[in-house]
Design brief:
alpha+beta; five-stranded mixed β-barrel; 5 helices; endonuclease; SNase_OB-fold_sf; endonuclease activity; hydrolase activity
Length: 189
Amino acid sequence: MCIVTEGCKLTGRHTLFFYQRLLLAGLVSIFATHVGAGEAYAARAESISDGDTLWVEPEAGGAPRKLRLLGVDAPELCQSGGVAARDALRALVMQRRLRVQVQYLDDYGRGLARIEVGGQDVAEALVYQGWAWSSRWRHSLGPYAVQEAQARQAKLGVFAQSKPELPRDFRRRHGSCFVPDDKGGFKQK
């Protein structure tokens, strides 16, 4: 028996066994994080949760999948403009054939996806209409900064407000729009 803090030496088959387990653990970790990433498929929207989250049903079959639009942040449902943003997403995608390209999985297991309808980038359309912000990251204004600037200039959607609040700032100040209900689910505040 060897205790790591005592500085053990692995020799022969113990070394091989150690490195095999280390490699296997690394591969399992990578696979678990990226299952579904890079996946492309045709789908139909099943339901719209909010202005940047929807459930889709792949045309090839299988379980419905929860997706979040990559590159945007829409107002929370309980935030000013939240219901209108959800309705705008619904108008763009319901009863239409979607082309889904999952890029990543987020911490909640949702696929972060680029979605197109008839060749139109859905996230770009929402930002252009003023119903979402281009996702900011460090010093970048995000992938749809030009569309956001145009929506602000035209005072479209949430940008018609005098001081629209970024959804991330709203979440930081107010938390989730949902609270547990007495049935083990959630309800809107």
